[in-house]
Amino acid sequence: MHITPDSIILFQLGPVSLNATILFTWCIMALMTVGSWLVTRKLSSTTRLSRWQNLLEVLVTGIRDEIREISGQDPGRYLSFVGTLFLFIAVSNLLSIIPGYTPPTGSLSTTTALAVCVFIAVPIYGITQKGLAYFKQYAKPSLLMLPFNIIGEVSRTIALAMRLFGNIMSGTIIAAILLSIAPLIFPVIMQAFGLLIGLIQAYIFAILAMVYIAAGSRVRQNKIDASLQNKKGEV
Amino acid sequence: MLIDWFTVIAQIINFLVLVYLLKRFLYGPIIKAMDKRQEKIALRLKEARKKKEEAGQEAELFLQKNRKFDARHEEMLFQIKKEVEAAKAELIKEARSRVDADMDRWYGAIRKEKETFLQDIRKRVARHTCAIVGRAIKDLSNADLENRITSIFIERLQNIDKNEREALAQAVQHSTEGIKVNSSFEIPGESAKKIAQLLQNLTTDPVDVRFEILPELICGIEVKLHGRKISWNIADYLESFEESMRATIEASG
For residues A88 and A24, is the Cβ–Cβ distance under 8 A? Predict the structure, then answer.
């Protein structure tokens, strides 16, 4: 039994190895891209639209509304990043219902990669928004707080990666363990729970990413802090 | 070690590629379509508002026209009613005048008929009465009555006033055929002479006096002279009797 799909090596050429994580990620990417292309190649701008278009519109609108609510800004610039985070993690987790499939989000490498992306995106968005004045916030309320702010920044990134990894990996492991103990009903229930947890984790990851980015851009600071507290309370 | 750094890098690249792909194939087109739809809806709403306004204006115009039409209709109806009333009144007046005329004509005809009838009655009554009286008088008449009539006539001739006398004298003078004395009986010779004498006295010229018997006179004598007449006869009395009788009939009719 593999704790992480990284250990399932399909192809190795020197340091370059094609493991299950990368393969399934490509599958998900292909699925999402082709699916999106199939739906969006004949979009309707009238009031009559296909079910798939409707689904995608609901998803995109939901994500935009959520971003707008958290950041208090136009969601356009954050949509691609935060939306893709949510959709990738959600699809990756939901597909775990398919036998033989191992979610890439159950790999610490993947979650780390995503957390690193967030870690990098926060200052990029902050600088884009505020310029180099962005870095001043690390020295607030005083310069003494600089190391703590940096530690906080790093630790929350690690927490982000670990939380997702832990949740998804544990779900997969629990399902596997239960299969060996009580193979009839419990695994199904746990799978269902796994789906729910997967979706919730996707939501949490995306929301936290958005909260970090919004906090970095320091727009409507009070509101962002309040919503951050709320979201943490919910989690 | 759970973290495979090669995989981490590969996943970062994968994620960034996915971000690009989804932006290219999902968010971009979907947002574009939604914006387009929103624009279309906004446009349609705008058009609908415009059309609603137009419809409202048209409805208002139509209402105004309707009101005008109603007012015109009322006015025309009123006018027509007025004209009809006038025509009706005119027709009634005409009919009434015709009826009045007809009634007048009928009343005239009835009056005439009544008149004719009354006259006829009168004539008949008078004729019959006179016939009866005449017959009775004729039956009763004798020499004494005739003498009496003659003497009354003579008396009347003698007592005519001056104007009458002059008129008679003129009439006698203009008369070419002479003086005709009509009587219902034969006047005795003495009396005839006296009458002739009295008539002769009217003028200086010789007068031709002729005596004739006319049974219609009914116990009477008359002298007719150029439109002048001196007489005494029962017919005169009968005439006044007839007059009073006619008045009585009319009053009762």
Answer: no
Q: Alpha-carbon distance B34 to A60, whole Å?
A: 10
Residues of A with CB under 8 A from a CB of B: 3-4, 6, 15-17, 19, 21-22, 25-26, 29, 32-33, 36-37, 40, 43-47, 53, 56-57, 60-61, 79-81, 83-84, 87-88, 104, 107-110, 112-114, 116-117, 165
Chain B residues close to A104, C-beta within 8 Å: 11
Measured over the CA atoms of residue A87, residue A90, residue A96 and residue A101, the dihedral's sign is positive
**Order of all β-strands in the sheet with B209-213:** B209-213, B179-183, B221-225, B228-232
Three-state SS sequence of B120-160:
HHHHHHHHHHHHHHHHHHHHHCCHHHHHHHHHHHHHHHHCC
| Chain A residues touching residue B34 (CB < 8 angstroms) | 57, 60-61
Enter the tokens of residue B125.
Answer: 């009554």
By C-alpha distance, the chain B residue nearest A34 is: B25
Residue A222 has pLDDT above 60, yes or no: no
Angstroms from A211 CA to nearest CA on chain B: 19
Cβ-based neighbour number of residue A122 at 10 Å: 22
User: Distance between CA A224 and CA B156 in Å, rounded?
Assistant: 162
Measured between alpha carbons, how far is B198 from B150 in angstroms, rounded to an integer?
13
ipTM value for the complex: 0.88
Three-class secondary structure assignment of B33-74: HHHHHHHHHHHHHHHHHHHHHHHHHHHHHHHHHHHHHHHHHH
Q: Do A61 and B34 touch (CB under 8 A)?
A: yes
Nearest by CB to B15, which of A61, A108, A113?
A: A113
CATH number given to B144-233: 3.30.360
Question: How confident is the model over A76-130, as pLDDT tens digits?
Answer: 889 999 999 999 999 999 998 888 888 899 888 999 999 999 999 999 999 988 8
Domain boundaries, chain B: 144-233
